[in-house]
Write a structure and sequence with these properties.
Chain A is 29% helix and 22% strand. Chain A has 695 residues and is of the alpha/beta class. Chain B has 13 helices and four strands. In chain B, the strands form two sheets. In chain B, strands 1-2 form a two-stranded antiparallel ribbon. In chain B, strands 3-4 form a two-stranded antiparallel ribbon. The chains are: A alpha/beta (695), B mainly alpha (361).
């Protein structure tokens, strides 16, 4: 095969039996084994899997950038027919950036903070095409306009920190497109962004892929996103590709137990915590040096057969009647794939009791001084504006919104880490709005607890799990003797379904899901009545999310706990909450039962939010609403309605009312509240964003 | 920006007042003054004589008032003796008291009289600062480029052989204080009996007995490579190691950043990755360190100037401190305070230019 000519009907990227290992002082750790995949010209290939499955390693191997410890130990990566694994640094340098470009997960970290955007962009054609500086800047300006950024000249002359996250990611995309590469590798390009921003980026990537005919390798853990973007898909598990094929085929006719288990563990429309609960994948992801013999997924698989699945290494096999559809399962021909999941235990809906938490006109303002010398104007950040709601016993109230909407501030005020500027918080019969946590009684503190977002940082790394729970019990004045507290601690471990032996373990010996269970045990140690769960599962892998969510629901049923579930993930909110509160820039823009919020009439923001969430179901048809621009800064919110700068319904309100006045809270049928100027007729005309096509 | 600088200068002035007051108070403690009286007038004075000498020379009165006089904010003291002769802080010998200015402190340019050097402090300071200025200039010229080069070279490939060799060198030099390295250098290069000089002299390769002279006194009039090499290297070696370590740490950190990976995967050659992408980010931290080295150099020159008998600022400070020369000591402290504050201001402002993420308001 010649180096210069390349037949476009041949694959752009052809990975064959690739194996990659990392070498540590102790041992060789295989990260990717026997991985094969082919990307044709103009095709978008999705790589899906949980963290640690090796998908990013594959991407870096294509770039030949595995660092000092990583090495390709077998197989080949052919790009346009040339084997990348045997290229010299110099040859690689000509391919990187010009023929293969990469888009990264964290845009802020991937841009040089001390270089102007323009210089960083112009550098690419200057290196690869030897373009003159002025021409390169001109091209940069054109590409910046192509990625739909406003005011390209200003952007070219700014530094990365002067742009928002979404804008930065567009710049990273622009940088990758500067020399019209044949292959684009996207490594979780939207994970660090808000959903509405993510929707814009995904649209852009799709449009640019079509415009330039670029092939894509799209790495993500989000199945919904892959369905949106990709043509083909490769599911990875523990260093191996387990299933590959066309996206629709894999989604609708999956032929590997892991793919199936993955789909059953994510909340799709139609799942319900009571009637159709999620099915979590049992067990944990194997560590790279502790992989089982035979099928890696064997120990967690429902279809496991002793002596067969764990006998020999399992090769990829073609699925009959499939279109380039392969699966790494010995039994895929025997399994009845259309069988419904083993009927999950359905449970009665928990009865909703009396009001336990009541907020009235809660406000929290921060004043931002401009200098240490007190000069300049004081700025006020309105983090929470007139929050009023009540939460009842046994109820799950979800608080939804993008970053900066004030949901975490609200949690802080409620917990007593901050005090409210005005308004009232009634917890049972106690007024707690201006009592900081140090002044609250043990009773109040143990009744009101929190489960935190990041289980990795919230446990003391130098104290055992059991000790940490006992410490919480001591603080809550539980029991009279150490023995009593010890017994209670073991009960709590049972409650969160951890083995009692875990009491003596250190946090570092636990997986993310197990740590979060410890966090939950700690929160419920004092018999908490109200629990604020701040994105409790967003840092966890999909297969673990279901298990932790179920656990929370279980405990809630047992203890009749009121759960305030803070999240940006609407799928999980729809799955588990009874009522939903949508926040935008400190305002509650919509509140109602889950059914009310997820069906029209919507608040325009909720509508956009719903449309932005990618759903991993081929039957779902969505109305595409992409919000323009960024969330306004809370220091300088727009006058009138907070959402007016991005609202697509604004023209329907006569007289520019949206520019002038904050809309009043209107109560529609069934106590559904909306903060919007739109007339009843317009609201009635709204169509559902998500439709499930008839089967 | 301007308001930031103005505010910083305001803070600097306040700091300068506070620091000079502390030094003033310490140097003007009663035992010091007593020593001064005895050394100026007569060693055999009894306590009453000391007290009256102090009163005659304006060393009594509240500390704050004397501090004000020294600064030149308050009018200088005057005293009319029994014979009608008027003496005062601002009245020099043989001067008409009426023509003398009322205030004379450092603000008016009157730094006082050095009891050791028998000259006005301003003259002493000007001469010694000039000498030290040359020394520091050459130290900086040697130290800054070589340390940055060392740091960048060892930091760009962490753990490589170059890194280990250079790091060993840097750690060794920075672990050796000036009074040790100075002695070693002299023994090695400037001794007629030890080191390499005897060997060279025997072979007839050098004219004198030693390769380098052991003092730098001749550099007061004429700086040459030969008479300045040893003092400059003694100070610079320590700083080279220190700044090189800082630069290396900052460089290795920058090289692991994601934007360096971005640059690499854009196809930028390694040399350009280092020069264009890493260098500016890596220099942010060492820049502050280099600026803080200036005050530290003042410290180093005390040892080196004494060691090499170079009559600069450090040597003067040692002489003044050893001989209870209050006015010179005070003046030296003012200079030191000034150097520290100014270099910090420069470091803050320079930081802004290096790091676009910092904005001054």
């Amino acid at each position: 095969m010649s180096d210069t000519t390349w037949d476009p009907s041949k694959p752009i990227l052809e990975i064959e039996n690739l194996s990659i290992s990392f070498f540590t002082r102790l041992r060789e750790i295989p990260a990717v084994m026997d991985f094969s995949c082919t990307v044709m010209a103009g095709e978008a290939m999705g790589l899906v899997g949980e963290s640690g499955c090796g998908k990013s390693t594959v991407a870096l191997a294509v770039m030949r950038d595995l660092g000092k410890n990583g090495r390709i130990v077998g197989g080949s990566i052919k790009f346009k027919g040339r084997d990348l694994t045997h290229m010299t640094e110099e040859e690689l340098r000509h391919i990187r950036g010009s023929e293969i470009a990469m888009i990264y997960q964290e845009p802020m970290a991937s841009l040089n903070p001390a270089m102007k955007i323009g210089a960083q962009l112009a550098e690419v054609p200057m290196i690869h095409q030897g373009m003159a500086r002025d021409d390169a800047w001109k091209l940069a300006r054109q590409i910046v306009a192509d990625v739909r950024l406003p005011d390209p000249d200003r952007i070219l002359n700014s530094y990365p920190h002067q742009l928002s996250g979404g804008q930065q990611q567009r710049i990273v995309i622009a940088m990758a497109l500067m020399s019209k590469p044949a292959l684009l590798i996207l490594d979780e390009p939207t994970t660090a962004l808000d959903v509405t921003v993510e929707a814009g980026i995904v649209d852009l990537v799709k449009a640019l892929g079509e415009k330039y005919g670029t092939s894509m390798l799209f790495i993500s853990h989000n199945l919904g996103l892959v369905l949106d973007v990709c043509d083909r898909l490769c599911v990875m598990y523990s260093g191996e590709a387990v299933e590959t094929g066309n996206v629709e085929e894999v989604f609708d006719k999956m032929r590997h137990p892991y793919t199936q288990a993955l789909f059953r563990s994510i909340p799709l429309p139609g799942a319900d915590k009571n009637s159709r609960p999620l099915v979590a994948i049992p067990g944990n992801f194997p560590l790279p040096h502790e992989r089982p013999k035979g099928c890696n997924f064997g120990p967690r698989c429902n279809y496991f057969v002793e002596g067969r699945c764990n006998a020999l290494d399992i090769p990829m096999a073609d699925v009959p009647d499939g279109h380039r559809h392969e699966s790494r399962c010995l039994r895929f021909a025997e399994i009845d794939w259309s069988a419904p999941p083993a009927a999950g235990k359905t449970v009665e809906k928990t009865a909703i009791g009396k009001v336990v938490l009541k907020l009235e006109d809660l406000k929290k303002y921060y004043s931002v001084g401009s200098s240490a010398f007190g000069g300049g104007m004081k700025k006020v950040v309105k983090a929470n504006e007139t929050l009023s709601f009540e939460a009842r016993e046994g109820e799950t109230l979800a608080i939804v919104g993008e970053s900066g909407c004030g949901k975490s501030t609200f949690a802080k005020v409620l917990m007593g880490l901050e005090t409210a500027t005005s308004g009232q918080i009634m917890l049972f019969d106690e007024n707690v709005q201006s009592t900081p946590i140090q002044m609250r009684g043990t009773g109040t503190i143990s009744k009101l607890q929190m489960v935190f977002q990041n289980p990795f940082d919230t446990l003391n790394p130098s104290s055992t799990v059991g000790r940490q729970i006992i410490r919480a019990l001591e603080i809550f004045d539980y029991g009279t003797s150490d023995a009593e507290r010890e017994a209670r601690m073991l009960e709590l471990l049972d409650l969160v379904k951890l083995p009692r032996a875990f009491a003596d373990r250190m946090p570092r010996q636990l997986s993310g899901g197990q740590k979060q269970r410890v966090g939950i045990a700690r929160a419920f140690a004092g018999g908490a009545k109200v629990v604020v769960a701040d994105e409790p599962v967003s840092a966890l892998d999909v297969s673990v999310q279901a298990a932790v969510t179920d656990l929370l629901m279980d405990i809630q049923r047992k203890n009749k706990t009121t759960l305030l579930f803070i999240s940006h993930d609407l799928s999980i909110v729809r799955y588990l909450s009874d009522r939903v509160m949508v926040m935008y820039l400190g305002h509650v823009v919509e509140m109602g039962t889950t059914d009310q919020v997820f069906a029209p009439p919507y608040h325009p923001y909720t509508e956009a939010l719903l449309s932005a969430v990618p759903i991993a179901d081929t039957r779902v048809q969505k109305q595409r609403i992409v919000l323009e621009g960024d969330i306004p800064s809370a220091v300088n919110p727009p006058p009138g309605c907070p959402f007016q700068t991005r609202c697509r319904w604004k023209a329907q309100v006569p007289g520019g009312l949206c520019d002038r006045e904050v809309p009043p809270v209107r109560t529609l049928d069934g106590g559904h509240q909306i903060k919007c100027h739109l007339s009843d007729e317009v609201l009635a005309k709204m169509e559902p964003v998500i439709k499930i096509a008839a089967e | 920006m301007l308001s930031f600088v103005l505010r910083r200068i305001g803070v600097m002035i306040l700091t300068a007042f506070a620091l000079t007051f502390v030094v003033f108070y310490m140097t003007n403690l009663p035992p010091n003054l007593e020593k001064l009286a005895k050394s100026e007038a007569s060693v055999r004075m009894d306590d009453d004589a000391v007290a009256s000498w102090l009163a005659e020379n304006g060393h009594t009165g509240p500390v704050l008032m004397r501090y004000g006089e020294w600064l030149g904010l308050l009018p200088g003291w005057t005293l009319t003796a029994e014979d009608g002769k008027v003496t005062g802080r601002c009245i020099e010998d043989g001067m008409d008291p009426a023509a003398a200015p009322t205030r004379c402190g450092i603000l008016q340019g009157n730094w006082g009289y050095s009891t050791v050097f028998k000259a006005t402090v301003s003259d002493v300071l000007a001469r010694s600062l000039g000498a030290t200025g040359w020394l520091m200039l050459w130290v900086m010229i040697v130290m800054v480029p070589s340390s940055l080069l060392l740091g960048v070279l060892s930091g760009m490939r962490e753990g490589s052989r170059t890194d280990r060799v250079l790091s060993t060198f840097a750690i060794t030099t920075t672990a050796t204080p000036e009074y040790v390295s100075g002695v070693i250098l002299i023994a090695l290069l400037a001794s007629a009996t030890a080191g390499i000089s005897p060997i060279l002299a025997e072979a007839g390769w050098i004219e004198g007995k030693t390769l380098f002279p052991g003092t730098a006194t001749s550099a007061m009039d004429d700086i040459t490579f030969w008479n300045f090499f040893l003092p400059v290297m003694t100070i610079a070696l320590y700083g080279i190691g220190y700044i090189a370590r800082m630069t290396r740490a900052s460089m290795t950190e920058v090289m692991t950043q994601q934007y360096i990976r971005t640059a690499r995967l854009k196809g930028v050659a390694f040399r350009d990755v280092v020069m264009k992408h890493a260098l500016r980010n890596a220099l942010i931290a060492p820049f502050t360190v280099i600026m803080l080295q200036f005050p530290w150099l003042l410290n180093g020159v005390v040892i080196v100037e004494t060691l090499f008998n170079y009559k600069g600022f450090g040597w003067t400070l040692v002489q003044a401190a050893g001989n209870n020369d209050i006015d010179t000591l005070l003046a030296c402290s003012v200079v030191a305070v000034f150097v520290v504050l100014v270099t910090q201001l420069i470091s803050d402002i320079g930081y802004v230019f290096l790091n676009p993420r910092i904005r001054l308001a």
